[in-house]
Amino acid sequence: MADEENRENRVIPLGEVDSLKVSIKFGAGKLVLISGEEDVFKGNFQYDKSILKPNIQYEILGETGILTLSQSIKKDLDLPFPYKNRWNLKLPSDIPLQLYINTATYSGDIDLTNLQIENFYLTTGASQTNIIFDRPNFTDLKNINIKTGASTIKMLGLANANFDKMNFTGGAGSYSFDFSGDLTKKSKVNINVGAAKIVLKIPSNMGTKIIFRNFPASKLDVRGFIKINDQTYISPEYGKSDAELDIEIKGGLIDI
Fold first, then answer.
1. Which residue ranges make up each domain of the chain?
2. pLDDT tens-digit profile of 164-214?
3. How far apart are CA 123 and CA 26, in angstroms?
4. CA dihedral defined by 4, 56, 122, 73, rounded to 10 degrees?
5. How far is residue 133's CA from residue 159's CA, in Å, rounded to a whole number?
6. Between the CA of residue 91 and those of 14, 43, 203, 236, what are the distances in Å?
7. What pTM did the predictor assign?
8. Can you tell me whether residue 161 is helix, strand or coil?
9. Residue 44 burial by Cβ neighbours in a 10 Å radius (0-12, 13-18, 19+)
10. Phi, psi for 23 (deg, rounded to 5)
11. Of 58, 120, 196, 253, which is the most exposed, with the fewest CB atoms less than 10 Å away?
């Protein structure tokens, strides 16, 4: 039988810091993350099992704020279903962020629009996740690193992320990479998956090179690209701008 539903609201002013590191460890449930006010973290936590109570810690080390959100859940803990576990998080919009998210089986809407993301790391089990950059990232994003199990992940507006490098590792599942937006520099993408469907959405005017590793050339259908060899394809605009995509793919069933 479910415990009484709990709702917690937390507001944490950041204080005098130049950057913020956010670590999120979330169990099974629903995670929603968006941008909020300039120098404040806000969180709404809903749960109906006492074991799901969030542990929230904030400290300042030097000029960096360290925000840690976690749940005291052991991997072998068997929670009877149904139960409620939902986090609604608002991250500050005016400070550079290092964002680390580690989840179990969950559903997530991670909207990074209007944030200053410097590094983004996501590790999930079986999950369904939407990751959104609706506007250009306010700072240089050095790394996007995603590791997932059997999942469905959609990434929207990736050119707006302003990233140097993205590494994506996945098991069986369905993964969509939408590179719409304002690409301002050369960005590298490595995708390594198992038995998964990969969908790439690349604007026709974006300079792009794609290299396919360990994939039968006879099964490739790369519409709108120029074939260089059995593994390498380029768009007509590739080599004409400093803002380009270099993509390498290993595994998966591919639709471009």
1. 8-73+85-251
2. 999 999 998 999 999 999 999 999 999 999 888 899 999 999 999 999 987
3. 10
4. -50
5. 8
6. 11, 9, 30, 39
7. 0.93
8. helix
9. middle
10. -115, 125
11. 253
